[in-house]
Amino acid sequence: MSKVLQGEALHSVDTKGRMIVPSKMRDLLGPSFVITKGMDKCLFIYPNDEWAVFEKKLQGLPMINKKAREFVRHFNGSATECEVDNQGRVLIPAGLREFAGITKDVKILGMIDHAEIWSKELWDELNNPDDFDFEGLATDLQDMGISI
To answer: What is the pLDDT, as a whole number, of residue 81?
Structure first.
């Protein structure tokens, strides 16, 4: 993958549900991309080429397995192709805003192959620096064979 989505930005969602896409991310995402439910009550934004890769993985799941069906429903069932308007904004569908608890301010994070959109309130609640155990996280990653 040549595109790497990284960094963070703070933006607002207007009364019509539109959000400005940060220009650095907009350049990598392109004029249209997919927004879907993510994990941890955030939304995922996938560039179209990365969404195609993810969709192939979803297609490979065994639909006889209930958890696989639920996984596909969660991501693919809520997926919406969105276009950036001339002012660099994208309309986040109401159902997705409701899922993520987005009302006004959002935190947008680059996650390498996709981006996340968080309600700023939920992001702040879940990411209190005083509660972050980096050493424990590093140990857990090392147990998975990932060293930093």
So the answer is: 97
